[in-house]
């Protein structure tokens, strides 16, 4: 059986994304901002955005071709008992 991990989407509220974009436009070195200050600000935003990993949800799934054949074999075995 294969186990897959699914993590919740890491989406930020629209207001927070807009605040970051506005900050980046104002302080970006290409727009005349100080590169060292911009790097420090990026670290701040990244720390702020970092949050503990969400709960991991394990999803157990059968292996497709084998599980289908097993189900079919089991149905035929049960049908044979009825005859």
Describe it.
The structure is a single chain. The chain is α+β, with helices and mostly antiparallel strands and 83 residues long. The protein has one domain (2-82). The chain is built from three helices and two strands. It has helices at 14-27, 35-49, 64-82, and strands at residues 2-6, 57-61. It is rod-shaped, with a radius of gyration of 26 Å. The two termini are 33 Å apart.
Question: Could you give the topology of this structure?
Answer:
Blueprint: E1 2-6, H1 14-27, H2 35-49, E2 57-61, H3 64-82
Antiparallel strand pairs: 1-2
Number of helices: 3
Q: How much of the residues is beta strand, in percent?
A: 5-15%
Give the strand order of the largest sheet, numbering strands 1, 2, ... along the chain.
1-2
As a whole number of angstroms, the C-alpha radius of gyration is: 26 Å
Helix content: 55-70%
Which word captures the global form?
A: rod-shaped
Largest sheet: 2 strands, antiparallel
* Mean pLDDT figure: 80
Order of helices and strands: EHHEH
| Number of spatially distinct domains | 1
Q: Span between N and C termini?
A: 33 Å
Low-confidence runs of at least 5 consecutive residues: none
Number of β-strand runs? 2
Structural class: alpha+beta
Salient structural properties:
83 residues, 58% helix, rod-shaped, J domain-containing protein, two-stranded antiparallel sheet, 3 helices, J_dom_sf, alpha+beta
């Amino acid at each position: 059986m294969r186990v897959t991990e699914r993590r919740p989407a890491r989406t930020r509220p629209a207001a927070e994304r807009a605040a970051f974009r506005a900050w980046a436009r104002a302080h970006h070195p290409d727009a005349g901002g100080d590169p060292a200050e911009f790097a420090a600000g990026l670290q701040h935003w990244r720390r702020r955005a970092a949050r503990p990993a969400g709960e991991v949800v394990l999803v157990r799934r059968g292996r497709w071709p084998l599980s289908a054949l097993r189900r079919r074999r089991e149905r035929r075995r049960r049908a044979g008992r009825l005859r």
